[in-house]
Write a structure and sequence with these properties.
alpha/beta, 3 domains, single chain, 5-stranded mixed beta sheet, de novo design (two linked rop proteins), 13 strands, about 40% helix, about 15% strand, 18 helices, Ubiquitin-like (UB roll), 4-stranded parallel beta sheet, Rossmann fold
């Protein structure tokens, strides 16, 4: 029997008759949780979010409550800021856009509760430049919320003040990285900051303590207030609580956005039961489970995971790709990550060299250029993969490609280095035969001089 969706965040999205204006939101229970939260001490809300086990939904999967607890408003001499990361730049990811375009007040309510809990009086929504309509929708929603005193001065007579402003980016992938985003918000080039010392919780926006949370993460806050942290923690799996928005694209019959409890559904159930199977009845070849920066997983391989037996002891077992549960820990255990929730499905007709060349081209274009390994290496990988996909590969190219990737990962200021290197490492490792086939016909490996001339 197919696993059913458990829609919390997407409860009203696409519901017939549901509109984005505040009156419709109020009819469906909107801002009830904000009213409730304003009667609870802020530190108690932080503790409840920590108890809920909510992990960030933007990519890293870090504990939301833990991130909040790094900031102690009583000890700060500077103001605390909150930034909603609505840049959503990861290829294969389109969930946050649905919230912004179809249920903007849910985001504002979640932000307002998060700001109150952390004694924040000024917050920003950093939105991707291409989301032109989304920015206009949010501006209208903010005006509506202020008119009804859900934002602004003395919210609902509580004595708490909060202003939220929209900041439109210019469409740079690097602004999805929190410190690059902060630099951009300050009007500078979005060069990610070195951590330490520039952890946002200590030295964030305007060198003040700052919380940066993703759109989906902040929307979860109102549901934690509604049901309580302990009840929320019962959704999903231990350390993988709540629901997760999944974006499915690629070679499936029914691509789209879905919401399931974390770990309640496997990759195979999602593809075959929910998305109608592979297009044209073809066979599954590979899956990227967390946006294009996640390592690719190959169909037909067996993956080792730790499994909890009925008696509570742990055992290791092997499972097929289709049987991998979609949760943070399991996807990490099989060598990839849950990331942004962007699940890209590839069938047996896909040329993996061409697929990687497409990904490498994107990352070469999006590198901010601050770090030499990333600036030079991403372009180098793009040139090699493009050459291979166009049938002009040289003997030795595949090994060179892997070497370049290995010398980027872990050697840059931010995680962009891993974002461009991990796809290369995993594609080449898992589909080496296809890459080697693109160099067939080259009798001898090129000399180092020839390699330099070629790139």
């Amino acid at each position: 029997m197919p696993v059913s969706e458990n829609r919390l965040i997407f409860a009203n999205i696409d519901k017939p008759g549901y509109t984005i204006d505040i009156d419709c939101y109020l009819k469906h229970g909107g801002y009830v949780e904000l009213k409730k939260a304003l009667t609870i001490p802020g530190p108690d809300i932080v503790a409840d979010v920590k108890l809920s086990g909510l992990r960030g939904r933007g990519g890293a999967g870090f504990s939301c409550g833990m991130k909040w607890s790094f900031i102690d408003p009583k000890r700060n001499t500077k103001p605390v800021y909150l930034i909603c990361n609505a840049d959503e730049s990861e290829p294969g990811t389109f969930k946050d856009k649905q919230i912004i375009y179809k249920d903007p007040h849910q985001l504002l309510e979640g932000m307002a509760i998060a700001c109150y809990a952390n004694n924040v009086h000024l917050a920003y929504i950093y939105i991707r430049g291409e989301f032109v309509l989304g920015a206009k929708i949010l501006e209208k929603a903010i005006a509506e919320a202020k008119a009804k005193n859900f934002l602004g001065k003395n919210i609902l007579g509580s004595g708490y003040d909060l202003e939220i402003y929209i900041h439109r980016g210019a469409g740079a992938y690097i602004c999805g990285e929190e410190t690059g985003l902060i630099e951009s918000l300050e009007g500078k080039r979005p060069y990610p900051r070195i951590k330490p010392p520039y952890f946002p919780a200590v030295l964030g926006l305007y060198m003040s303590p700052t919380i940066v949370n993703n759109v989906e993460t902040l929307c979860n806050i109102k549901h934690i207030i509604a049901m309580g942290g302990a009840a929320y923690a019962k959704l999903g799996r231990p350390n993988n609580t709540g629901t997760r928005l999944l974006c499915v694209s690629g070679d499936v019959e029914k691509p789209g956005y879905y919401e399931f409890e974390v770990g309640a559904i496997t990759l195979g159930e999602l593809i075959y039961d929910v998305c109608g199977g592979i297009k044209g009845g073809r066979k599954l070849k590979a899956i990227i489970p967390g946006g294009s920066s996640a390592k690719v997983l190959k169909a037909g391989e067996r993956y080792k995971i730790k499994h909890k037996k009925p008696d509570g002891t742990m055992e290791e077992k092997e499972i097929a790709l289709e049987d991998v549960p979609i949760d943070f820990d399991t996807l990490a255990a099989v060598g990839s990550m849950a990331g942004s929730g962007g699940i890209i499905v590839m069938d047996e007709t896909r040329d993996m060299v061409e697929c990687l060349a497409n990904i490498a081209t994107f990352y070469a274009h999006e590198s901010c250029g601050q770090c030499t390994p990333c600036r030079e290496g991403s372009l180098w990988m793009k040139k090699i993969t493009s050459r291979l996909s166009e049938g002009e590969g040289h003997a030795g190219d595949v090994g060179l490609l892997k070497t370049v990737a290995d010398n980027i990962a872990g050697k840059t200021i931010c995680a962009f280095g891993e974002a461009c290197a991990w796809p290369v490492q995993s594609f080449v490792t898992k589909f080496r035969d296809e890459f080697d086939a693109h160099t067939a016909g080259d009798a001898a490996a090129p000399t180092p001089a020839q390699k330099l001339e070629a790139v």
